[in-house]
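User: Good morning. I'm curious how iron/sulfur cluster would be positioned relative to this chain. Could you predict the structure with it bound?
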Amino acid sequence: MKYLDEFQDPELARRLFDDIRATVTRPWALMEVCGGQTHSIIRHGIDQLLPEEIELIHGPGCPVCVTPLEMIDKALEIASRPGVIFCSFGDMLRVPGTGRDLFTVRGEGGDVRVVYSPLDALRIARENPDKQVVFFGIGFETTAPPNAMTVYQARRLGIRNFSLLVSHVRVPPAIEGLMTSPDCRVQAFLAAGHVCSVMGTEEYPQLAERFRVPIVVTGFEPLDILEGVRRAVRQLERGEHRVENAYPRAVRPEGNPAARRMLADVFEVTDRAWRGIGTIPASGWRLSEAYREFDAEQRFEVGDLTTVEPAACRSGDVLQGLLKPHECEAFGTVCTPRTPLGATMVSSEGACAAYYLYRRLAGAPTPVEVAPVG
Ligand code: SF4
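Assistant: Good morning! Here's the predicted structure, ligand included:
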């Protein structure tokens, strides 16, 4: 399959591993920002095949995982109301709120629907003018543009019974938040390629300069990851700290101008709470004044709802790279994908889910899907 098989080629992977081994002379800690990259790394055993000097720290780039408990509780409250059709991507339905999840609400009679596009939710709104239709808009710079476009279309078409529950977050302020934490051990970043395909790379040079860290825009296949690691390690060994694009087949410096225009029209930057991490200034979006009437928090008056996160779940430490999932006491015992305590065990991009799925338990053998290299 084009753009897939050739990026999993074992011989090319072997050469990249050899190059990295020949380059590295001392320990380095690299953070892959995106949960999709984390899953690729764990699935293919890349972290186990790299030289022991290189540690890959899993970052906060899983959109489901960083959505705060408070926002899940707001979704549950809205979805429970009579006359509401609550639409979401499927991976949010099992994310635990306080005492229940969206599946529970559906079991109790709530009209909760899985959709595959926010435009599906808009269609449902057109077909059900006597109902309030809400779409749960979560995620990074990747999912924000289609959600922005849906609100734009709702206003253009005069569909007033549609609204968006917004929990969008931005990567650069999260990097800044991580780097200013006293516990931070990260020395280089593998930036999320799909985020940069939308936003471009111009937000990153100032971060690389200020924190003196290499930032390498990286894709998601095994060779993409290895190339990102290779470039980051080369910079670290040379004492450099630049932004490099190791994912040029998808990322241009300017990103996607049409998507960025749509974001700038519909959203405005705001402070956002991240699950287990807390509020990071300017790290998210909310609907701009012109589109505020489509804000579900305002329409359903749930803006004041606050929640305390359970102490047992250490997903905040996992999301900041301070703890590996299998180092959490609840991992694989009271917390499993069937009985998740936190979103990082539920989401298809969550680090805890990756460790569980690929049997990365303490003392467990190398995963079965390790690439035949090295
Ligand atoms: S293993 Fe479960 S309880 Fe522990 S951090 Fe992950 S999601 Fe939270």
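Residues 33 and 59 are 4 Å apart (CA to CA). Residues 5-64+171-245 form a domain with the Rossmann fold fold (CATH 3.40.50.11750).
Let me know if you'd like a different ligand tried.
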